[in-house]
Amino acid sequence: MKSKFTGALIGSAIGDAFGAPVEGYGMKKVSSVYGEDWKMIFGRYTDDTEMMIGVAESLIENKGFNGADMARRFIENYDMRRGYGPGSKEALRRIIEGESWEEASKKLFGGKGSYGNGAAMRIAPVGIFYYDDADKLREIAYKSSHITHSHELGKEGAALQAFSIALAVRGRAKKEDMLLELKEFVENEVYKEKIRKIEELLEKKAEVDKEEIISELGNGEEAFNSVPPAIYSFLRFDNFKDCVIYAVSLGGDTDTIGAMSGAISGAYYGEGSIPKEWSEKLEEGEKGRSYIKRLGEELYRAKFVLNTDLNIRE
Ligand code: F2R
Ligand code: MG
Ligand code: MG
Predict the structure, then answer these.
(1) From residue 247, how far is each of 20, 55, 68, 256 by CA, in Å?
(2) Closest protein CA for atom 29 of ligand 1
């Protein structure tokens, strides 16, 4: 179980770093950069992991969700060189200027809020910690998303990604049942339709080409165009490496779809399944590989050793 917790967080960071050099590239250009061998290029993570670190730190330190503290950690960790989305940047700027975390994100996109994938990309700590309680997982996924993403589709994407990770933590034998459980869990029609499409595409097996996956499931910056291809990539392959290579090879928002697929796969197969040659290249330093692993261990300790009920404080 500990290796599933650390696998989800490290898997997310590895998928992010693996996709980062080709973010925004089309499918063909991604393949031409990586060639045949798909070696990790730089090993530097982006905003996806920096924010995921903030979510984990805040849950651990507060023994649960504390919106003001999580927002503060996003701001303290913020390094613009990691490449943040415009909506997230704007929400954090508003909080720095004094707006509350409950209000800031509601002003974005003409008052509709963001449905970008920035909430789902950072959700792995919620998925592992609340893996055994779907209601609480949804509640905390929504609340942690709301700091930057208040649109229903942004929050539901984060909850769906968190629940996919939760199912992956629950066990190997259940992979076949996962779509059924996802279908029951998801509330929004946009995501229900995407899950139906995942099912159809999986039935076609390897005959389906990448163009079809992209046109049916997406590969973009919106939560509903990135969580579905990440889930598909996980379900289609039977190991961490093939899953993440496939997710990134779709092009588009490669670091983010890489992070999402890496988090689900890492939670399912455990940390030991992550190729050494990739994890050794993941950046170290103050909040690098060892620190991310430690956050996974701390969440495990809070859950199973201290038996903490990570509650909600606002
Ligand atoms: N920002 C980037 N990458 C570009 C820069 C990287 C470059 N390689 C570099 O090194 O500098 N990546 C990161 O941003 C994505 C997450 O974005 P987030 O945080 O969700 O931002 P935002 O702006 O809220 O949403 C993304 C876009 O979605 C569309 N959108 C969202 N809500 C909308 C709404 N209500 N109506 C219409 N459109 C909406 C907009 O186009 C948003 O800009 C990740 O890829 C992360 O890696
Ligand atoms: Mg990124
Ligand atoms: Mg991205």
Answers:
(1) 12, 24, 33, 9
(2) 116
State the Cα–Cα distance between residues 270 and 2, nearest whole angstrom: 8
Ordered by start, the domain boundaries in the chain are: 2-304
Name the superfamily (CATH) of residues 2-304: ADP-ribosylation/Crystallin J1 (1.10.4080.10)
Instruction: Report how far ligand 3's centroid is from the alpha carbon of 254 (Å).
Output: 6
Could you report the per-residue pLDDT of 54-95, keeping only the tens digit for each? 999 999 999 889 999 999 999 999 999 999 999 999 999 999
Q: How far is CA 65 from the centre of its chain?
A: 18
Q: Is 199 left (phi over 0), alpha (psi -120 to 50) or beta?
A: alpha
pTM, two decimals, is: 0.96
Find the residues whose C-beta lies inside 6 A of ligand 1: 23, 46-48, 83-88, 109, 112, 114-118, 121, 151, 221-222, 253, 255-256
